[in-house]
Amino acid sequence: MPRKAKIRARAAELQAFFEAAGATPVETPLLQPAEVLLDLYGEDIRGRAYVTSDTLRGEQMLRPDFTVPVVQMHMDHGAEPARYTYSGQVFRRQEDDPSRDNEYLQVGYEVFDRKKPSEADAEVFALMQEVLTPLGLRAATGDIGILKAAVAGLETTERRKQALMRHIWRPRRFRQLLDRFSGRSEVPATRSALIANQDPMQNQFPVIGLRSEAEIAARIEALKEDAKAPLLSSGQVELIEALLGVREKLPFALEHLRDIAVDMPAITEAVFRLKDRIDALSKRDVDVGNLEFEASYGRTSMEYYDGFVFGFYAPGRADLPPVATGGRYDALTRVLGQGREIPAVGGVIRPDLVLQLEGGI
């Protein structure tokens, strides 16, 4: 049997497993409106997706994943609660690593249920683990919601909190901002000169780019206002660093986070949610005592995850991407639902990697 036919057959088996668990099979268009994805992720998405132009429909993107179109479909006409499964091609540019596939199949399982989010988290993870158990994969988990709660609780300006929130998924930029806001790094000389200039717009330089003069002036004023903001205290920065450094088996990670929450009460509710998730996972016979938790896990994924995140990896195969990934994306439903929202969590499996590890290809 040809390689692609084998992968499609394995994908069909995985989808049938999710259908048996109660999911409704759905399909989404291969071409997605670029405007929606650009609004969600900004211009960065162009570096990861294939973009085409249509005279009537405007810019379109080859589907980079299923989550956004499935959420859009559910928010437009889905019932509650809902469970969906799908199988199909996704397309992602791999310019940094040409050895990675830029076109491959995904099989997914998504849950939209507002009653008990922690149980939905456990449901998705446990199903993924069950179907992948024969492969002996290593599971990793995290929780973006704890870091977001920590940033929201910082004693600083809303503008600085928003900047840190925006770059949670860009660890290097997040660190640079944290250092600048706390005074650990110096303000660039060009910015200092701009801020010191009483009227930087008087130089009458030509306006280059898409921003208008009014937008440029507003940005300069924002920079001047930010320069007057008090520095983040060393204590707050140390707590963020301690949080980002948590990497232990799940029960020990919970105790470590509880200790941090004593001095950082903003994360208390998120830590309670983690405890509820641990209990829900245990009820589904997941060995939480040996499940890895890393507070920074998931920060380089696409930016819609805002809570529980997980991945399954083949031990000793650093050359392979994760076999399965997933997480919670409540905020995405609010954005695409135009004010309406519902807790949602899901995960995807790559059948080509499953088949490769099984020795089928």
UniProtKB/TrEMBL annotation:
GO cellular component terms attached to this protein's record: cytoplasm
Cited SUPFAM superfamilies: Class II aaRS and biotin synthetases
NCBIfam families, alphabetized: PRK12295.1-5
Ligase in keyword set: yes
Gene Ontology molecular functions: histidine-tRNA ligase activity
Gene Ontology BP term (one): histidyl-tRNA aminoacylation
Cited PANTHER family: HISTIDINE--TRNA LIGASE, MITOCHONDRIAL-RELATED, HISTIDYL-TRNA SYNTHETASE
Keyword Ligase: yes
Binding-site residues for L-histidine, renumbered to this chain: D65, F66, T67, R92, Q106, E110, R299, Y304, Y305
Protein name: Histidine--tRNA ligase
Alphabetized Pfam families for the sequence: tRNA-synt_His
All residue ranges annotated as the Aminoacyl-transfer RNA synthetases class-II family profile domain in the record: 17-351
Record's subunit section: Homodimer.
Originating species: Shimia thalassica
Keywords from the UniProt entry: Ligase
